[in-house]
Recover the amino acids of this structure.
């Protein structure tokens, strides 16, 4: 996974609350099988008119067409669990979204893909939004836990230490669970199997269940 | 030991280890696998040359992209066919049980999990789909995850998670005739907001819960995610146990007795404390419909389209203006004057037998308005079969509905069932987001009875106003 330490870029301002993952990545493109190349469908309906022409949506407008930061309203990424919303953002080049709050699954999905969803609320969020609207570069520094605005103001932010570490090191979470916790998992599983055996289906149970219908 | 909630009990019984940064490694018992969120997860496993930790923990079915017509025919060539083929290929490669489209047990993941007895109280269950909260109706911790987390469950049977705060939603009183559990959840979301539940695991409790069927509890838990909560739960009780007993994958014999003994210990203790409490009197509720582009933008159907100028919060006002523009609605217009082109009865929210029965009881002896295209899409093949054995298909067909095969259909518009730009739909699904039912389509969320009534009237209407059948 790509590491995230510090980025400096113009930030695209999207003054809108409740931007859901259907708007970020419309469902009909979920039929695509790969993670790569989804950026062209990011905010598809907002970026393209019905006749296919480009709209004046912020991400179509220089310098924001190359923005690595998006500043949005509350509850960004609510709705569906589709990780395609994050893959489309990162493929487009956006690696940090700043909003007062996020949809939980979207929030979690960001960290699996080297992207930082940054919670900044209240007046500070408004100052970031206004700074973004100027088109001047903003710096997001994960190490220092600050957002530095064009006028030099540094806004501090909170983030879970584990999440921060994951991004800074570009950690492979699955790899580290397998490397560090495999033994604990095996012990736990044996204990659970003894105490709640009904939680474990034998291999092939469903296979046998369907034996009749499949034989037809 | 301090008194514990249902959520805390299930959580604690599944913690493999606590890390010193406040996260825990949570053991996952069950995983439902569908075609949309799995291809990239499987690709990750293949790329890293990783095996499945426990193949029998997963069952798989294609539900989002499948057609609901001509099911006996092979899928037409195209993206959907490729996605379903990829799922079958991956399941074969990794040894996961796959339920075919033509199988008697096919259906939407969140409908068949419970039907099969795959969903159990006290379990941890995940799926790459946000409506996995549905399964919490059985007293499971069930939540939607992204594809990367699906990959993690495949490879490790665990997820690194932070324990959530708890919220109890106490439902007092009793629902009046013509008012449904869908109206409860829509009213709740309107009350606490679409992010009111973020960070919380909701437990629905109170006198109104005890009387609800499992189908109704599933509708309630299903839409918890629309209030921002990944997890919505109901404590298991006799209704839960009698639903599960004899299901194909439920425990049997001594195993059933042992499970039952354990499940009876799961409900929250009387003096357990929740981080947040919300109360709602359901007696006063009337049928609700959504008018905007998120499920919180909902009002009783007797009201009018709200006026953004009366909204003091500028952010909410801007959102409302945008919603009304997208929905092509004028403030002050009575909601009951909104005409519809389509009616969709189905989805993981309201595609179960009880929903079909209620909708059929409304349309029985009536005709769908000539200006409306109405479809009834059972949530599973088993719902369809049972409905047919009760003659519900005839009732729908005689009224002018189409009677389809199981799948997500017009809830997510990934197959052929979609609205055209500008078309308006009365829908029993869960999301009224922009473009959710097709690019440029407009969705009004409501209960099955209300959607059925809209099909007859040709516009939104309080189902209680429909006169006697002709």
């Amino acid at each position: 996974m790509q590491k995230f330490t510090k980025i400096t870029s113009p930030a695209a301002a999207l003054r809108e609350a409740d931007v859901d993952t259907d708007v970020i990545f419309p469902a009909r493109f979920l039929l695509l099988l790969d993670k790569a190349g989804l950026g062209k469908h990011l905010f598809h309906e907002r970026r393209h008119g019905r006749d296919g022409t480009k709209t004046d949506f912020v991400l179509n407008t220089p310098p924001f067409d190359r923005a690595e930061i998006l500043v949005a309203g509350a509850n960004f990424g609510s709705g569906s669990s589709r990780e395609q919303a994050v893959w489309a953002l990162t493929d487009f080049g956006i690696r940090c979204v700043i909003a007062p709050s996020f949809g939980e699954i979207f929030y979690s999905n960001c960290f699996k893909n080297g992207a930082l969803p940054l919670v900044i609320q209240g007046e500070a969020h408004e100052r970031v939004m206004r700074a973004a609207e100027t088109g001047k570069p903003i710096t997001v520094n994960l190490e220092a836990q600050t957002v530095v605005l064009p006028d030099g103001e540094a806004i501090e932010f909170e983030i879970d230490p584990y999440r921060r570490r994951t991004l800074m090191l570009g950690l492979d979470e699955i790899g580290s669970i397998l490397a560090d916790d495999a033994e604990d998992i095996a012990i736990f599983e044996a204990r659970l199997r003894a105490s709640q055996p009904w939680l474990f289906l034998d291999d092939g149970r469903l296979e046998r269940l369907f034996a009749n219908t499949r034989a037809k | 030991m301090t008194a514990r909630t249902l959520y805390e009990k299930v959580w604690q019984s599944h913690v493999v280890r606590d890390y010193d940064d406040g996260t825990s490694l949570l053991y996952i018992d069950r995983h439902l696998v569908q075609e949309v969120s799995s291809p990239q997860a499987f690709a990750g496993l293949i790329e890293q040359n990783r095996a499945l930790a426990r193949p029998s923990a997963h069952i798989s079915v294609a539900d989002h992209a499948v057609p609901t017509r001509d099911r006996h025919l092979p899928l037409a060539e195209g993206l959907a066919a490729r996605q379903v083929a990829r799922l079958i290929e991956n399941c074969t490669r990794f040894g996961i049980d796959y339920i075919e489209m033509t199988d008697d047990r096919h259906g939407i993941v969140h409908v068949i999990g419970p039907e099969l007895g795959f969903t159990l109280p006290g379990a941890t269950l995940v799926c790459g789909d946000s409506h996995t909260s549905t399964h919490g109706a059985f007293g499971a911790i069930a939540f939607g995850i992204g594809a990367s987390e699906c990959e993690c469950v495949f490879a490790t049977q665990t997820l690194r998670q932070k324990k959530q705060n708890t919220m109890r939603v106490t439902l007092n009183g009793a629902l009046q005739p013509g008012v449904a559990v869908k109206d409860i959840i829509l009213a709740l979301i309107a009350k606490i907001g679409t992010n009111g539940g973020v960070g919380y695991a909701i437990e629905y409790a109170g006198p109104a819960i005890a009387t609800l069927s499992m189908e109704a509890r599933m509708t309630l838990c299903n839409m918890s995610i629309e209030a921002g909560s990944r997890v919505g739960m109901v404590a298991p009780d006799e209704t839960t146990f009698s639903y599960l007993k004899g299901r194909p994958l439920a425990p049997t014999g001594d195993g059933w007795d042992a499970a039952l003994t354990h499940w009876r210990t799961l409900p929250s203790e009387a003096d357990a404390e929740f981080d947040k409490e919300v109360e709602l009197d359901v007696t006063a509720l009337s049928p609700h419909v959504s008018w905007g582009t998120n499920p919180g933008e909902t009002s009783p159907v007797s009201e009018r389209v709200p006026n953004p100028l009366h909204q003091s919060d500028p952010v909410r006002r801007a959102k409302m203006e945008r919603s009304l523009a997208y929905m092509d609605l004028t403030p002050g217009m009575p909601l009951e004057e909104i005409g519809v082109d389509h009616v969709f009865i189905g989805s993981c929210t309201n595609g179960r037998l009880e929903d079909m029965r209620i909708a059929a009881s409304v349309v029985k002896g009536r005709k769908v308005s000539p200006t409306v295209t109405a479809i009834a899409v059972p949530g599973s093949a088993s719902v369809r079969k049972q409905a047919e054995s009760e003659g519900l298909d005839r009732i729908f067909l005689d009224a002018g509905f189409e009677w389809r095969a199981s799948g997500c259909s017009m809830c997510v518009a990934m197959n052929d069932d979609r609205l055209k730009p500008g078309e308006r739909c009365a829908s029993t699904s869960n999301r009224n987001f922009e473009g959710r039912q097709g690019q440029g389509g407009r969705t009004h969320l409501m209960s099955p009875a209300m959607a059925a009534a809209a099909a007859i009237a040709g516009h939104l209407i309080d189902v209680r106003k429909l006169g006697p059948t002709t």
Notes: Residues 15 and 72 of chain A are 6 Å apart (CA to CA). Chain A touches chain B through 68 residues (CB under 8 Å). The two ends of chain A are 47 Å apart (CA to CA).
